[in-house]
Specification:
The complex is a heterodimer of chains A (434) and B (253).
Chain A: E1 5-9, E2 19-26, E3 29-37, H1 44-47, H2 56-61, H3 68-83, H4 89-119, H5 125-128, H6 134-155, E4 164-165, E5 168-169, H7 175-201, E6 214-219, E7 230-233, E8 237-239, H8 246-249, E9 269-270, H9 273-280, H10 286-294, H11 307-332, E10 347-355, E11 358-366, E12 372-378, H12 380-399, H13 404-417, H14 422-425
Parallel strand pairs in A: 6-9
Antiparallel strand pairs in A: 1-2, 2-3, 4-5, 6-7, 7-8, 10-11, 11-12
Chain B: E1 6-11, H1 17-23, H2 28-35, E2 37-41, E3 54-58, H3 64-76, E4 79-83, H4 84-88, H5 101-109, E5 136-138, H6 145-156, H7 168-174, H8 199-202, H9 219-228, H10 233-239, H11 241-244
Classes of the chains: A alpha+beta (434), B alpha/beta (253).
């Protein structure tokens, strides 16, 4: 079919931050396909210059509103690595709960508020409230509230946590509060099941598109890795030298984007829930595996649109794992404990965690007085930008005979499936301060 | 007001956490939808309209292209509300104002060829009121959800929202916390505007000053605090870097 058309999406909606999609077709030939990030750069690494070790967490939390708990944990791990600070078992358990809380709130926000309107053919959740889907929206709201209240309980606040500090917690939940939380987590399981069934009923709205790519995530022998693990790739296997993570991430600058791009073994790679699922699905709790089966999601799945389903699977996993973590915490007895005392020294530390959108790395070098002299942060969405671009290049020829409106929607859905955190992803490169 | 005011939400350079706080109102959003029409909110909706009465602006302003967009938004809005620390006081984004933009550009983008590319044309960080007039402020990093509800409800009813002018210490005392100075920490509560329910001290962490300085600090009390804990005015200035860097009130720049 010979035709001329353009798709220009400026400031893509229902994602965090500012991204544009450009597609120009002339005489049926694709002249340009571009995913670009137009967010204003914020220069976080430069802001860390001269800040004291115990202030880095609070500042880097502000990189992102959605994954501020993840940034906090990556920051604390990097700082503690640089200063050789070890943390107690209780802190370790509570941090794992914190990561689940964030994964849950972020995933349900994406599934329910950002992605689901596409499956149901509306522009946002608001019109759904006046439709037959009202009950579904209220179920999603209920799960979102639970995840946020869990974050509040563990971290003091959902956005920009307060209680997470170098070496431990400034305050911990009580036994009674943990028991109440555990009860609510258990009660939420039927609600999750209902939401899964509803999603399944509209799952044919998920485009059938595949492109083989590399997936990178943390992996661990002990569990489905989120808080701790080693770098792992579907192409090249495990990479234990976490201080040399740059050998995997290889950041570079492209003119259409204030966020940097990355690549490893191929032109691009993907991180996030689907990458984790593809690498570590055997370690999911049985209930989460059942949810995956409902959608016929099996590793290795090469459809990026299935990332949303992988998030739902992880949501179920986080509930079961949290219930179990609370049992462990209660068995050993939760108590007020002071954060580990820090002896200030110079050094470099790297912190790796899996956050909702994928692998997050903070890397700090401190001077002998504990002030930051060099910082580097590698954000999940950075790592996905090149993969989004590559997907678009394969996807557009496959859908070129659809109407421009339909093509626009599918491209938007593709970007949304990655759940990009664009405001996070701007402005990162190795910084050396003179 | 006979018809519901039309509200539009816009974001500039920030983490979008304050917009997320609106989503975090959960069921209570439904109550707000009874009194206002949301006509634009890019983070959660595809629909967009350029016809609105109240513009809620999040984020700080970094580039000439952003200033242009903000001025357009101002020209369309009857009321402009600055949302969150990035918009109200420049937020943590102002930390970098101690260096020239060219310097941080080079630090972060190295030798990448970005000259002449307007996406990368960065000025010093500005709060929203340094570019256009602001009618109302919703402070905090992130904002407090109840305060957001209060401001929007007041504006929808054509009333003036009440924002505290007293310091965080007042709310901290209400929560019956042990003063963090007593616990050997340093807190900006005595000079920071309240309205956050003293959430940080209540969770065992010092106030970082995200809501900006109180308009008129009770200087006597502040001096008393400093004296009691053997601290100097210099100490306060030094601790203000996270949120108030560049503010004349804290002596910097």
């Amino acid at each position: 079919m010979t035709k001329d058309f353009s798709v220009h999406v400026e400031h893509l909606t229902r994602v965090e931050g500012h991204g544009n999609i450009t597609l120009d077709v002339k005489n049926g030939t694709i002249e340009k396909i571009q995913w670009s990030v137009v967010e204003a750069p914020r220069f976080f690494e430069a802001m860390l210059r001269g800040q004291q070790y115990n202030e880095l967490r609070a500042i880097t939390s502000r990189i992102c509103g959605i994954c501020s708990i993840g940034h906090s944990l990556a920051s604390l791990k990097a700082t503690e690595d640089a200063l050789n600070v070890s943390i107690s078992e209780q802190t370790q358990l509570l941090r794992r709960l914190a990561i689940h809380a964030e994964n849950m709130q972020s995933h349900i926000l994406h599934i329910g508020y950002l992605a689901a309107p596409d499956f149901l053919g509306v522009g946002s959740v608001f019109p759904l409230l006046a439709s037959k889907h009202k009950e579904t929206v209220l179920k999603i709201v209920k799960l979102h509230r639970l995840a946020n209240e869990m974050s509040d309980l563990i971290c003091g606040r959902t956005i920009h946590p307060i209680r997470l500090v170098v070496g431990g917690f400034s305050m911990v939940p009580t036994k009674k509060q943990l028991l109440t939380l555990q009860k609510r987590l258990k009660e939420s399981k039927p609600v999750v099941h209902d939401v899964a069934k509803i999603l399944l009923s509209v799952a044919d709205a998920i485009p059938q598109f595949t492109r083989e790519t590399e997936y990178i995530a943390l992996s661990s022998d002990d569990e489905y890795a989120l808080y701790e693990g080693v770098l792992n790739s579907t192409d090249t296997g495990r990479f234990h030298e976490y201080h040399n993570y740059q050998l995997l991430t290889n950041e570079y600058v492209v003119p259409q984007s204030t966020a940097k791009y990355t690549k490893h073994n191929r032109a691009s790679y993907m991180v996030g829930a689907l990458a984790r699922f593809n690498l570590n699905s055997k370690q999911l709790h049985p209930w989460a595996q059942d949810v995956a089966k409902m959608f016929n999601l099996k590793p290795i799945n090469y459809n990026p649109f299935m990332n949303t389903i992988a998030q739902l699977v992880e949501f179920a996993h986080s509930i079961d794992d949290s219930i179990q973590l609370i049992d462990t915490l209660l068995d050993r007895g939760i108590k007020e404990e002071k954060p580990t005392k820090v002896v200030v020294k110079s050094g470099r530390g790297v912190g790796l965690v899996e956050v909702p959108r994928g692998l997050l790395i903070h890397d700090y070098t401190l001077n002998s007085k504990g002030y930051c002299i060099k910082a580097n942060c590698i954000i999940p969405t950075n790592q996905n930008h090149a993969n989004i671009q590559q997907d678009m290049e394969k996807l557009v020829p496959e859908i070129i005979n659809k109407t421009p409106k339909e093509i626009e929607l599918i491209l938007e859905m593709l970007v949304r499936a990655y759940d990009p955190c664009i405001s996070c992803s701007t402005h990162y490169l190795d910084v050396t301060f003179k | 007001m006979s018809t519901k005011p039309r509200v539009a939400v816009f974001d500039f350079a920030d983490c979008e956490g304050c917009e997320l706080q609106i989503a975090n109102l959960e069921e209570e959003i439904l109550d707000l939808l009874e009194i206002v029409d949301i006509v634009s909110f890019r983070e959660v909706m595809k629909e967009h309209s350029d016809e609105y009465d109240i513009a809620i602006v999040e984020g700080s302003i970094m580039r000439p292209m952003d200033e242009k967009r903000l001025k357009y938004i101002r020209s369309k809005a009857k009321i402009l509300v600055a949302l969150g620390a990035c918009a109200t006081i420049g937020g943590v984004n102002k930390i970098r104002n101690q260096w020239m933009p060219e310097e941080v550009m080079k630090d972060v983008y190295g030798n990448a060829k970005v000259k002449g590319n307007e996406l990368f044309n960065v000025n010093k960080t500005k709060a929203v009121n340094e570019v256009v007039p602001v009618d109302y402020y919703i402070h905090g990093c992130p904002i407090d959800r109840d305060e957001f509800k209060h401001v929007i409800t007041a504006l929808a009813l054509g009333k003036k929202p009440e924002i505290p002018t007293y310091p965080v210490c007042v709310e901290c005392k209400k929560n019956e916390n042990v003063c963090l100075f007593e616990r050997g920490m340093y807190c900006l509560g005595p000079i920071t505007r309240a309205g956050c329910k003293a959430i940080c001290p209540t969770n065992g962490s010092p106030c970082e000053g995200c809501r900006g300085l109180v308009k008129k600090a009770e200087t006597e009390c502040v001096w008393e605090v400093l004296e009691r804990y053997n601290l100097s005015y210099e100490d306060i200035r030094r601790r203000c870097t996270m949120y108030n860097y560049g503010r004349a009130e804290c002596g910097a720049q």
